[in-house]
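User: Quick sanity check before I run a bigger batch. Here is a single chain. Can you write out its predicted 3D structure?
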Amino acid sequence: MVAAVMAEPVEASGRWNETLRRTVTALAFAAPAAGAVMAGPPYLPIFAAAIAIVMAWEWIRVTGERGRFNAAWAALAVLLVAAVAAAAWGRYAWGLALVAAALPAVYAAARAEGHPHAAAAALGALYVGIPALALVWLYARPEIGRALVVWLIAIVIAADVAAYFAGRALRGPKLAPRISPGKTWSGAAGGLAGALAVGLAAGAALDLARPTVLAAASLGFAIISQLGDLLESGVKRHFRVKDAGDILPGHGGMMDRVDGIVAALAAAALAILIVGGDARPWL
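Assistant: Done. Predicted structure follows.
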């Protein structure tokens, strides 16, 4: 009984310390990210390229290469930076071509240096490259680009934060115990509620769309962001890695922090492409 009573405050203290680390790290990361988004080109593409370099390193590491430097990461990073630069100049087809070229280039480099999972390493070109191009492309949408990116990132962050606190407070049944044992259905529901509230408020403030469109889109992208989180967790579990990296205390690696955002960016770009590249008539 005494041991149980003593363990409870220790556990609560540990949860508080973890929450504090996550909060401080999130705020420190949010400042340059918000600055880049608000400033736009050339700062946004530069920021996107820097994030892509870090994520490329983490992807190669997660898929099996634990060394400090390797040719597969170098090939992936160089081609992704070139792709983002092409997109920044409005050459989106070139950007996609460079991402496609990264697939065989990274595979060949990984095979040459004995990477245990060369094909998986090469897929990092798609996982990192497509969302990076989507970010630059979405930002360039006429009239609504910046507002759209700000709104999209805001609802993903809201979903993530609300899911974290709701899951810790309510707990309950696990969402996907084989993929990510820490996630619960209560957390997922809290994430949807948080995304809905922030999506409606931010969308109205940005004069982005009608309330019904904002509500549906907020819930849709919140679900997509949670699926992106599960996808990244599934990749790590498959390769038996706890965190993608340690660059962000309390979160792990860059991939661990932006897993929901990359999924939402890619989905938003695809949705706008499907309606002809201009979302304004639908807003």
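The two ends are 59 Å apart (CA to CA).

User: Great, the batch can go ahead then.
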